[in-house]
Amino acid sequence: MRGMNVQPGNNRSRAQRGKMNAPARIARIFTMMAFLSALPPLALAGNALTFGVLPYVSPGQLIKQHGPLKHYLAKTLRQPVVLVTAPGFGAFAERTRRGDYDIVFTAPHLGRLANTRDGYQVLARTGHQVRGMFIARRDSAIRRLEDLRGKRLMMAAPRSMLFLMGKETLRQHGLALGREVVWGKTRTHNNALNAPLRGKADAALTGIVMWRQLDPRQKKQLRLIGSTPPQPGFIMLAHPRLPKALATRIRQALLDFQHTAEGKNDFTTRALKGFAPIAADDLVPLDPYVNAMRETAS
User: 0.85 exceeded by the pTM?
Assistant: First the structure.
């Protein structure tokens, strides 16, 4: 609240102001957690459209990166939109299956699964491509993927596209994750990215978007030692309960987003290259990753 802010010219120390603002910061954190709560999204949404976003980064980053798109869709569709996520990839996939989300922003292989198994309508894809980047500390002796033998490699989310791509790339270099390479487990890809810098792992696998956006001062401390082949980016889908006319309006709104005032400087446009058309048949090559994910889950 404005009335609680410290006004210019106040002689209180910065530490005192920090103490006064601590409850407000805590309240904001809990508000954010509730905003992206794992509790039933439909209950949160009421009559609003529930916009489910894959938890590929932290909740705070999800709000920052996809909040503008949420507001744009609400304005364009003239209907409230609620942004929600889940505690992990498995929970997100399960909530997608049971219909907790009206529209979904998800990984390509999970989008393929939602389309074939659950009847979700394919709306659009992001223009960028998913690509895994293997990194290590620059001051280490690790210079190529083969040097990972016997080392600890931080990789997140076993059901994620990055994980499956990374595991296959290691296999092609004669390295089995969990055997020749020690698997360091973490929840998100940005956690993995920071692991070598924090001494939590010898190396890590992260996504190309996060690698490109990394602070240059941190990037100077790291070395790129390999990458996976590229695959399609994120997929947007609509639940089959949504009328075809509404799904069509959402699809057009997504395709128009990058050309609007709100979208020109948005994360989706800058980092993910906006949205582009896609057909369900374009996702057929992802079937091996869907099968690999099912094997990992079992």
Answer: no
H/E element holding 244? helix 244-257
In the three-class reduction of DSSP (H, G, I as helix; E, B as strand; rest coil), residue 124 is classed as strand
Max Cα–Cα distance, the chain, nearest Å: 65
CA 135 – CA 232 distance, rounded (Å): 22
90/43 Cα distance (integer angstroms): 20
* Tokens 């002689």 belong to residue: 11
* Three-state DSSP state, 241: coil
Q: With CA atoms as reference, report the closest residue to 120 among 129, 111, 128.
A: 111
What are the chain's domains?
41-129+232-297 (3.40.190.10), 132-229 (3.40.190.10)
Whole-number Å distance between alpha carbons of 185 and 166: 14
Buried b / exposed e along 192-202 (16+ C-beta atoms within 10 A): bbbbbeeeebb
CB 275 within 8 A of CB 125: yes
Q: What is the pLDDT of residues 103-136, one digit of tens each?
A: 999 999 999 999 999 999 999 999 999 999 999 9
The tokens for 80 are: 């409230």
The secondary structure of 137-150 as a DSSP string is ETTSS--SGGGGTT
Strands 203-207 and 152-156: parallel
